[in-house]
Amino acid sequence: MTTTTTTGTPQAQPAGRTDVLRASGVTMRFGGLTAVRNVDLDVDSGEIVGLIGPNGAGKTTFFNCLTGLYIPTEGQVAYKGKVLPHRSHLVTKAGIARTFQNIRLFANMTVLENVLVGRHTRTKEGLLSALLRGPGFRKAERGSEERAMELLEFTGLAGKREHLARNLPYGEQRKLEIARALASEPGLLLLDEPTAGMTAGETSATRDLVLAVREQGTAVLVIEHDMRFIFNLCDRVAVLVQGEKLVEGSPEAVQADERVVAAYLGTPFEGEPGEAEAAEVREAETREAAAHDGGQTGTGENPKGEQH
Ligand SMILES: Nc1ncnc2c1ncn2[C@@H]1O[C@H](COP(=O)(O)OP(=O)(O)OP(=O)(O)O)[C@@H](O)[C@H]1O
Known about the structure:
Layout: E1 4-5, E2 19-30, E3 33-44, E4 48-52, H1 59-66, E5 74-79, E6 82-83, H2 88-94, E7 96-98, H3 111-118, H4 126-132, H5 135-140, H6 142-155, H7 170-182, E8 188-192, H8 200-215, E9 219-223, H9 227-233, E10 236-241, E11 244-249, H10 251-256, H11 258-265, H12 275-295
Parallel strand pairs: 1-11, 4-9, 4-10, 7-8, 8-9
Antiparallel strand pairs: 2-3, 2-5, 5-6, 10-11
Bound molecules: adenosine-5'-triphosphate (ATP).
């Protein structure tokens, strides 16, 4: 498979931008399966980059290689010019934070405590002390608490600081994950499917939050299946297919790329995505309801009602 940068290579880095992430030739093999093959990906300061691709394309595996959870079989990952160690806490300490596809909060800790745990790489106290919340931790962490409250204000969760994480609605749990990731003061935030399972309103709020994160000086790399979200948010999009980078370029170029359409998107993405489909569904429902009213006697029940 040949990788193409649809906007042309090499790309000149816009003035004032610096390298944040530089992944080169990353390959990850699990026994006989090559989940990621020779992938290069850069993220510059001030950028929001999207990583898309079909299920099983290797996106999360690639994230795991970036964050030290996996040791790539080949290749290397550098953050701000320094090659990263293969230890996740050291990667976080270096400046890369992440959220996970499945929410990983401390369910029985409060919202504030969850963010404080996220600060452990920026304090002397360490994770164990943070979890045990002993007197030393309390004393040393007053500054952290202030910062954590700032992050809760930033993510709109300040009013729920004392709520248990498990009692938050789903969309707010996702926000809390982002707040906790930001607590390590990252230069790069990796988001793995941040809008999965969200309502349209929650997705839109997540978009605003990611833009605000960038405004605050943190670059973002995001995996997502919601193409509307990706194409409306990202400066650049890379497409993984069967472990290889198929295409990389602007959202417009990637959406229009025939290989991406064939391998992943299916149909070209135009106008207000989702609206046309929603209108079609409404129309079909109206037709079906009319047919039932006219053609049936008795209960008038919609036989497909259970599907909605
Ligand atoms: N720890 C592992 N051991 C063996 N195989 C794995 C492991 N992790 C992932 N894989 C395999 O690697 C391939 C890529 O999986 P990965 O989860 O990275 O894809 P993905 O693009 O993130 O998919 P999705 O969009 O469904 O989350 C899949 O075939 C998966 O089964």
